[in-house]
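Progress against Task 2.4 (sequence-to-structure conversion) is shown through the following example record, which the project officer requested during the mid-term review.
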Amino acid sequence: MRRTLFLAVCTAAGFGGLAAQDVIEWDGTYQLELTDFRSPATRIGEGNLYSLQSTAGFDFLFHMSQGEFMFTKNFNSKVSCTFRREASALVAPDSTIARQVLAFARYEFDLYELYARKFRKRIYEEKGAFSDASFFRPAYDELQRELVTRHSLAASDTDLGRNEVMLQERHAAVLAEIAVLNDFCKACKPPKKAR
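Structure tokens generated for the chain above:
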């Protein structure tokens, strides 16, 4: 008997009917631009408030038979870090603050990729031949708590990007951590452990 497993976990808003041009997948080269914030709520040059509603996040999706699942160890390609243009909004009273908030959005997108890589690494290390489909849940919950704390502290400490020096330091630290986890990019195949 062939049983099929399907699992979806999302850290951002629901994915509903996504159009391909709406979604930016993290690739390490593309930098978010102000034009990527396509929500009707985006406003620059109006009022005196500034805010960011980004839909950056990572998801874990797989569909395979029970036998395939049993023998699969590398789930890197099943974890994606994305940004949804149509649902993301940036509000700033002027172009200077808009640029600062955009810098925070770029940091945030890279932070989500870092946690996608941490998650890929954890499930690679923890998946056994006899793991059930929910084996990833403890790692996901732990990393999600860590991510929320780190994101919240960065938003507060940098005043959503207004403290440019502090944001640059935090962003450099995230990029360095991403580099350390190079074997856990979406298209990468982690090296087998020596026995």
